[in-house]
Write a structure and sequence with these properties.
This protein has helices at about 35-40, 60-65, 100-115, 120-140, 150-160, 180-190, 200-205, 230-240, 265-275, 290-300, 310-325, 350-360, and strands at about 1-5, 10-15, 25-30, 50-55, 70-75, 90-95, 145, 170-175, 220, 245-250, 280-285, 305-310. The chain is α/β, with parallel strands linked by helices.
């Protein structure tokens, strides 16, 4: 379909897309023209530096396009190449065609584009091995794999906000519904998203502002009489953000349109975000009910992500927690000129591990041993 280089103001596409595209840290490389258009037209809190629909890559490959701070990929058989890990440091990727029908469908699409019988066979062979290659790349460079576009959008918005998760033990959420609080707790347990254990001082601070009968716990249900909504929610969010065990905080409300003009929720989350360096987000429960007028000017414009779904939002937060312990700089292949050209693959263990290192994939040190009972010199 073409590409848009937002940073340089260059557009090379053959049909109408938003102009200008919102600028931001996301580099999007996708085979699918439909996914390309969907992500460019989404009303979310992230923008692009580069957006590419690379198709069959007959001339330029996805690896050639890979770039910048946060990279999003939706692949139908792309193969990682020597230059394909340039955007790996903070990347969110949606894998396409991982199993039976998905692989066959991806290959059929690429064969259909060429219009030649059997043209998809090469793609099918690539797809059959592609997931193992991507798993190796993900493991080597700390990428984050997502399962669908909704999870991709939430993860991109959370990462693009720029706040790194603190070295805590889990998340904390503030709710205005006991039922949604219980639902979030159950879902987080299913998805292996940890809630932080709060310090006694945090329990005391929360108990001082909550209505009688509400438990100062995490996740936290704040709604009682409905009095002083804005200062109450702001203080609860701030108290949780100040807890050393909390890595990220979310205001878990549906963010529906308020017909009486009440802006307490956006105001509370913005106040909490201004008082901490930790990630602070809105975790909405129902995407179709999110008030875009409240989400965009009130929250997203101030750098507060609005995650549009409990499941996908929790998964995005899990990706952020997983990323917290990783180094800020990405690994680079030790050979600045890339892998050595070879006429045949190496056969010995040490040479094979060396080949992995040439591609920038960490591998253990190894030595050849003449027998099982004798330790090799220098081993």
């Amino acid at each position: 379909m073409g590409f848009v280089n937002v940073a340089r103001g260059l557009r090379a596409i053959g049909y109408v897309e938003p102009d200008p595209l919102p600028a931001g840290p996301v580099a999007l490389v996708t085979h699918s023209g439909s996914v390309f258009s969907a992500l460019l037209r989404t009303r979310r809190g992230f923008g692009f530096s580069l957006a590419v629909s690379s198709g069959q890559e007959l001339v330029t490959t996805a690896a050639d396009y890979a770039a910048v701070r946060a990279a999003a990929r939706r692949d139908q058989g792309a193969r990682p190449g020597p230059g394909g890990d340039q955007g790996r440091a903070r990347a969110a990727r949606g894998a396409g065609g991982r199993a039976g029908r998905g692989r066959a469908g991806g290959a059929a699409q690429r064969g259909r584009v060429t219009g030649r019988p059997g043209a998809g066979l090469g793609s099918l062979r690539a797809l059959a091995a592609a997931d193992g290659a991507w798993e190796a790349l993900v493991g080597a460079y700390g990428l984050h794999r997502v399962r669908d576009l909704a999870e991709l959008a939430d993860t991109l918005e959370l990462f693009a906000a720029g706040r790194r998760a603190a070295p805590g033990t889990g998340i904390a959420t503030v709710h205005d519904s006991g039922l949604e609080r219980a639902h979030a707790a159950d879902l987080a347990a299913e998805l292996s998203v940890p809630f932080a254990d709060l310090a006694p001082a945090t329990h005391t601070r929360l108990a001082a502002v909550l209505d009688p009968g509400l438990d100062p716990a995490n996740p936290l249900d704040v709604w009682g009489t409905g009095r002083d909504t804005e200062p109450l929610f702001a203080e609860c969010l701030s108290a949780l953000a100040d807890d050393p065990a909390v890595a990220a905080v979310a205001l878990a409300v549906d963010l529906v349109p308020e017909f009486d003009g009440d802006e307490s929720y956006p105001a509370a989350v913005l106040a909490a975000a201004a008082g901490t360096a930790k990630p602070v987000a809105v975790l909405a429960g129902l995407p179709s009910a999110v008030d875009q007028a409240a989400a965009r000017p009130a929250a997203r414009a101030a750098g507060v992500p609005v995650l549009e779904g409990t499941r996908t939002g929790l998964l995005a937060l899990r990706h952020l927690l997983d990323h917290a312990g990783r180094p800020r700089t990405s690994a680079r292949p030790p050979n600045p000129h890339g892998p050595t050209r070879r006429t045949a693959l190496p056969t010995s263990g040490p040479e094979l591990f060396g080949l992995l290192r040439e591609y920038g994939i960490p591998a253990v040190r190894s030595r050849a041993a003449a027998s099982a009972g004798r330790r090799p010199r220098g081993g």
